[in-house]
Amino acid sequence: MSNQEQNKKNQQLDKFRVNDKGKALTTNQGLKMNEDEFSLKAGDRGPSLLEDFHLREKITHFDHERIPERVVHARGFAAHGEFEAYESLAPYTKADFLSEAGKKTPVFVRFSTVAGSRGSGDLARDVRGFATKFYTDEGNYDLVGNNIPVFFIQDGIKFPDLIHAVKPEPHNEIPQAASAHDTFWDFVANNQETAHMIMWHLSDRAIPRSFRMMEGFGVHTFRFVNEEGQAFFVKFHWKPVLGVHSVIWDEAQKLNGNDPDFQRRDLYDAIENGQYPEYELGLQIIKEEDEFNFDFDILDPTKIWPEEDVPVKIVGKMTLNQNVDNYFAETEQVAFHPGHVVPGIDFTNDPLLQARLFSYTDTQLIRLGGPNFHELPINRPVCPFHNNQRDGYGRQTINSGQVSYHKNSLADNTPTPVSEEEGGYKHYQEKVEGKKVRARSVSFEDHFTQAALFWNSMSDVEKQHIIDAFSFELGKCQEVAIREQVLDMFSNVNHDLVTGIAENLGLAVPKKKDINYTKSSPALSQANTKKKADTRKVGIIVSDGFDEELFSYIKALNKANINPEIISDHQGSISSKGGSKIPVHHTFMTADSVLFDAILIVNKEGTKPLFTKEAPNFVKEAYMHYKPIGAIQDGASVLHDLGLTDEKGVVTNNAKQFVEAVAEARFWNRDGK
């Protein structure tokens, strides 16, 4: 039964998968062609003829191969997988995919950056999209979230303004995939509801090490409804099994130069290697009667529910275990929508969510050419669907019969609406009353308390990274007045924060304000995340004549599920002192220290040019990025020459300690220069 559940979507997609290898060339109508090199002409030097249907079909298809990229979340990468429930959530929701322990549901997950174009780099300082499509037995359910649990704005009517501000400035189309410019920070300073999100945006969360090592959040407050009609408020969390980890800003900039596809490649390679990314689904649940028991409005999308106040209940696990076969057909054409729900999941009056419920259908219409985007293979539900919709661009279903309306007698009034008891979706009956107004609830007016909560929750290292990020971003703004406005705004968060920024920018420190908010949430700090060596990548610098001990190190790394990659002065293979050969993955021309989580140096003797020029620079940069560094045998002399042998996270001739250092990942307390 479980195999049947998890293979449903794959079986459906198999009908559309085509491998052209070994096949005869045909037109799109199936006509076999005897020539594909030359157009039809009047004589071999004459004009091409309009009747050349093959030329016209081929060129027309090429002319229309590109569809408009997403306005936001344009640069994405995706994978297939499955979700398995740990327990029945029947007390909270009647959603079938959460109804019993062990129930499996196929999923498709798309990760993305938000602000950049499809051609931008992976390591922009940006929010990351984390969108999950569950192909349930009751229809598709889309959990369309981000890797940050709050958002910049409280009302969806301001979304166009936010995106216009953060996108490249319209007069010169600069900068790409960056918020470090005047229009964005002008928007921030004049829309102070952004304060909490900005703290997240300038933290390490905005430059994740990997899609596999970042959290996901539904952002909004949704409703669960059980069989008895009882409702609960709920927030969704994805918790990565590998923990939450980031790069530092210097790494991010260099990674975008060394490998702009770094996060894409990381996800793809992990799945190809069988190191399947895993995320546990967590829920925060609040009873309806407790809606107003907090010092914030639970519907405000710029607020979190602190995990210490509302614990996260872990209810299942998602495993991504299959890469896409075709990027365009699947990753680019997938259409998500927060309004794609199943019985047992409903909405709240969050004004940002309410606008999204309109916007997502609207954007698919322009991107995917019409109302039939749900018929594309990647978007089709696994359960059958029947309604009176017909025609339109891209229609694939061939509907038989004369009836396309409701109610009718010619088809016995079918398709027929079904009752709630039979699985029909019914909206939760929330009592609503009030005057029609353009307004915002006064309960949404506190913009700084949770921004301070986030700051209070950070480690000293994370706080310094936030100060540095503010200094970089504002330092790129040309208008000094904008820098001053932002400083004044964030003086409502913390005086130490704005003091550090002001000193870096050469500005006057704003007057200290009376801020007495000291609450913190340890769950917000990455200093408290899981630390595992699994799937980390170690660059091993080695050349011919290396000591056989390397093989025992590689065995220890493999046992810890670490990925070792050989870096040398030439490609092909290298030989040990005993004549054993090992393949080379990279040279110093094709690799850089920022591509690895740790560096291991093996030998020095006999390879002087390699280890007096390239290797020391490799090691010094890894050291500057606080990464683990190891050495075997005479490779330790490189570390000795650099004065690193007594530094934190620097390990010589001890495989066990080196693996432990790789798990630690960063050594922020190093004393060296």
Give a quick rundown of the structure.
Residues 26-414 form the Catalase core domain. This protein is of the alpha/beta class.
What is the rounded distance between the termini?
A: 60 Å
Class per helix and strand makeup: alpha/beta
Characterize the largest beta sheet: strand count, sense, and whether it forms a barrel: 10 strands, antiparallel
Instruction: Determine the fraction of residues in helical runs and give it as a percent range.
Output: 25-40%
Q: Which word captures the global form?
A: globular
User: What is the CATH architecture assignment of the largest domain?
Assistant: Beta Barrel
* Number of distinct helices: 17
Strand content bin = 15-25%
Name the poorly predicted regions: none
Mean pLDDT reading: 93
CATH class of the largest domain: Mainly Beta
Using only C-alpha atoms, the radius of gyration works out to 28 Å
Cofactor: heme
Function: Decomposes hydrogen peroxide into water and oxygen; serves to protect cells from the toxic effects of hydrogen peroxide.
Biased composition (Basic and acidic residues): 1-23
Protein name: Catalase
What features would you highlight for this structure?
673 residues; alpha/beta; Cytochrome C Oxidase, Chain J; Catalase HpII,  Chain A, domain 1; Hemocyanin, N-terminal domain; 10-stranded antiparallel beta sheet; 6-stranded parallel beta sheet; 17 helices; 18 strands; 27% helix; globular; oxidoreductase; Catalase_large_C; peroxidase
Topology:
Blueprint: H1 2-14, H2 53-63, E1 76-85, E2 104-113, E3 128-136, E4 139-146, H3 159-166, H4 182-190, H5 195-201, E5 216-217, E6 222-225, E7 231-240, H6 249-258, H7 262-272, E8 278-287, E9 313-323, H8 327-332, E10 345-346, H9 351-367, H10 449-457, H11 460-475, H12 480-490, H13 495-505, E11 537-541, H14 549-559, E12 563-568, E13 573-575, E14 581-583, E15 586-587, E16 598-601, H15 608-624, E17 629-631, H16 636-642, E18 650-652, H17 655-664
Parallel strand pairs: 11-12, 11-16, 12-15, 16-17, 17-18
Antiparallel strand pairs: 1-2, 1-9, 2-3, 3-4, 5-7, 6-7, 6-10, 7-8, 8-9, 13-14
Helix pairs in contact: 3-4, 4-12, 5-10, 11-13
